[in-house]
Design brief:
The strands form two sheets. A two-stranded antiparallel ribbon has the order 1-2. It has a two-stranded antiparallel ribbon with strand order 3-4. The radius of gyration is 32 Å and the shape is globular. By secondary structure, it is mostly helical. It is built from 31 helices and four strands.
């Protein structure tokens, strides 16, 4: 791989000069051709006849063609050199920026690519007093290493591709100049990668390393990905992937080799996904070659691929292989729709109409010794939807027609389908339930973001808001759909979805004055199904924290809006936006109680650990509430940004960290003492902050009275929510 010192100090001026020189050659060759024609060929025409003349004119005709070919080859070499210079210059510029960033942030970058944290604060007493410092520094270090590696990979792939293209024997075969010389590095690299995928027999470690380098450097490049996919072919792509992931019996792979194959899975999946989207903006409609590639993938889903024909058991089916790759990258929306329909059709026509996917997707198929991939292809497809929001929204709000019967996609996945359990079926030892993957798709479909995207929120569309309502009504109407193992694996995603729609949640509880506004389209949630929905979801520690953070964030923002307004009755307006947060907190307190003492699905430690490792919904909740209040989708704006996130996170920690270790304290903690007091205090603090940052003038006595009133309002809401939840659950 190209080294950091080499790329850092490389003088690219000679390459630019060479490209410029080659660029001038075509015109010179064309001038020579014209001069040859005028001074030789045209001069002799009409003055020379006979066999010798005929032979000479034939030879001169070939010479004229060579001038043309020389001009063409010079033009293409010039383009290739310009392309190479552009790639190297861009990589060098990115490297310089990263090295400057590292120095400014007190990281030392060594010549071999290692990065060391040399921040003097690490050795000072303040570091131990700031628990978040070490984690923050580690995240920055990992990001630097990842970006440095990426730059070096791109530069290395470009360097090797340029070398290969320039070493090509353009005119040494006796046929004159070669007019098919490469003009872009993309085409060289696509040829190299496709040649490896098309090679007969298993690739060596060095060849897999080379393939990984090419794919990693170009996986998000539409031109490379398109050429690679077309030159490899859909069926051959799956066959080679199956072969690589299923080594022959008796093969022992090292940790490094396994890591190499896992990296290949990610790189190949992202590259193919990019290929399927490479014609999305093509003039004249879809690229017929990409359409053929996608159709080949669909057709190949129906066959089994035996990685080692002389051995048993077999490898995987085309659906299993494609879904394994689909869990990475961005894929074409229409293709995902077609693929999902085909997958459900295969299951409905298979074992017990989708009720026994274990048998349908299981033995004699096997993951092989690498255990890379998943036996249940629906899990990979769900993660594909989870990374492709437009596709997930469309798929989960539509239906398929199978043998003349309408099959609602969401109903099939959430109600009807039996999801096989175990890491072999999901491909993830940490999450052995496919319901976790279904949750990813539902998050993406309702939020408009990838399920693992912590970026800026996206305004809710009517389709996404309607889907959220359908999910709430479905699970709220039948809480067993998210209760008990393995269905409880849905809860963390459902918690994120609830946090995403917290304005809609609070508005459905109380919003007489219309202060609470949705972030985009209104989901029009119904309290009759919303309460049992939150009750069920809130039993998961991660969901509990997400909902709590988002609820407090929204309450803080709506308080700020009221404080900035000109309401004639400030107390009543504040109560209107305070009470819903109290109700949410009360429902959650009772849900936590159920999780710990009735379901035994979680402990105090689980809830406290969840708040220690997740704080994203305080900031995200603020951003969405501010966006709704201001009518924009912008990030957190104004004075609210600085004070609110820190204050809300502190409130969440206080509210979540409770100890309910015995029966006596259980009653007090959940219904009256800890949760009740915590939501009251947080509301009082929030209204004080809102008034302070609004510019409104208020005496200390009036502020204390207002804060006390909001504390009681929040406590009343908490009591109502807890009691409501207990009565609904028959306690």
């Amino acid at each position: 791989m190209v080294s950091i010192p080499y790329l850092d100090k490389a003088d690219l001026a000679p390459l630019a000069d060479a490209a410029a020189s080659w660029k001038t050659l075509p015109a010179k060759y064309e001038a020579l051709q014209r001069e040859f024609e005028q001074r030789v060929i045209n001069h002799l025409k009409g003055h020379w006849e006979g066999d010798a003349a005929e032979a000479a004119f034939t030879t001169m005709g070939k010479a004229r063609t060579e001038y043309e070919n020389a001009a063409t080859e010079a033009e293409r070499i010039a383009k290739l050199l310009l392309d190479a210079h552009g790639e190297f210059a861009a990589s060098q510029k990115q490297l310089h920026a990263l090295l400057d960033e590292a120095r400014n942030d007190h990281y030392k970058v060594y010549d071999d690519g290692r990065v060391e944290d040399v921040d003097p604060r690490q050795d000072s007493p303040t570091a131990s007093a700031s628990p978040g410092l070490a984690e923050e520094r580690k995240k920055k270090l990992d990001s630097l290493v990842s970006r440095l590696t990426r730059v070096l990979e791109v530069a290395t792939a470009a360097d090797e591709a340029a070398s290969s293209a320039l070493e090509r024997d353009g005119n040494g075969d006796g046929q004159g100049f070669n007019t098919s010389v490469y003009t872009t590095l993309d085409s060289v690299e696509a040829d190299q990668a496709a040649a490896l995928m098309n090679k007969k027999g298993r690739l060596s470690d060095a060849e897999i390393t080379k393939l990984n380098l090419l794919l990693s450097a170009n996986k998000n490049d539409p031109e490379f990905s398109r050429d690679f996919a077309v030159k490899t072919g859909g069926e051959n792509m799956l066959s080679k992937y199956n072969e690589l992931m299923s080594p022959p019996a008796g093969t022992t792979l090292s940790k490094a080799q396994l890591a190499q194959l896992k990296e290949l899975k990610a790189n190949l999946g992202t590259t193919i996904g990019t290929a399927t989207t490479s014609d999305d903006h093509r003039k004249g409609g879809p690229d017929p070659e990409i359409t053929k590639f996608q159709n080949d993938l669909l057709k190949a889903g129906q066959r089994d691929f035996n990685a080692n024909p002389t051995e048993s058991p077999y490898g995987l089916s085309g659906y299993q292989l494609t879904s394994s790759l689909m869990s990475e990258g961005k894929w074409d929306k229409d293709f995902l729709q077609d693929y999902g329909d085909a997958l459900i059709t295969a299951e409905k026509n298979g074992a017990n109409a989708g009720q026994n996917p274990d048998a349908y997707w299981g033995y004699p198929r096997t993951l092989g010794t690498t255990n890379i991939g998943a036996l249940d292809p629906m899990t990979g497809f769900m993660d594909a939807l989870g990374h492709n929001p437009d596709a997930s929204t469309e798929f989960l709000t539509s239906e398929a027609t199978i043998d003349g019967e309408k099959v609602d996609h969401l109903d099939y996945l959430l109600k009807d389908r039996h999801w096989p359990e175990g890491p072999g079926y999901t491909g993830d030892p940490a999450n052995p339930s496919g319901y976790n993957n279904l949750g990813h798709a539902m998050e993406s479909a309702t939020s408009g973001r990838s399920f693992d995207d912590d970026g800026a929120p996206v305004k809710h569309t009517p389709e996404r808001a309607a889907l959220m309502k359908e999910v709430v009504d479905t699970i709220g109407g039948d809480p067993s759909l998210a209760s008990d193992s393995p269905r409880d694996a849905l809860r963390d995603s459902l918690g994120n979805m609830t946090a995403e729609y917290m304005a809609d949640v609070q508005a459905s509880i109380a919003n007489e004055q219309g202060t609470i506004k949705p972030f985009g389209a209104d989901a029009h949630l119904d309290m009759g199904t919303l309460e049992p929905f939150i009750s069920t979801v809130g039993r998961d520690p991660d969901a509990y924290v997400a909902i709590t953070e988002a609820s407090q964030a929204n309450t803080a923002v709506w308080m700020q809006e009221v404080a900035k307004g000109s309401s004639s009755n400030l107390t009543a307006a504040m109560e209107n936006v305070t009470y819903p947060g109290g109700v949410v907190a009360g429902i959650l307190s009772d849900s936590r109680d159920q999780a710990i003492f009735e379901e035994h699905s979680a402990s105090d430690k689980d809830f406290n650990d969840a708040v220690a490792t997740s704080d994203k919904w305080a900031g995200r909740g603020l951003g969405m509430a501010v966006g709704a209040a201001t009518g924009t989708a912008a990030p957190i704006v104004g004075t609210i940004a600085g004070w609110a996130v820190e204050d809300i996170q502190a409130m969440v920690v206080e509210q979540v960290q409770q100890d309910t270790t015995d029966e006596a304290k259980r009653e007090a903690a959940t219904k009256y003492a800890e949760g009740w007091n915590a939501v009251g205090r947080s509301s009082a603090e929030s209204v004080r902050d809102a008034i302070e940052h609004s510019g409104r003038q208020m005496s200390d006595d009036d502020l204390n009275q207002l804060a006390g009133s909001m504390e009681q309002t929040a406590k009343s809401g908490h009591t109502a929510g807890a009691a409501w939840n207990s009565s609904v659950n028959g306690r």
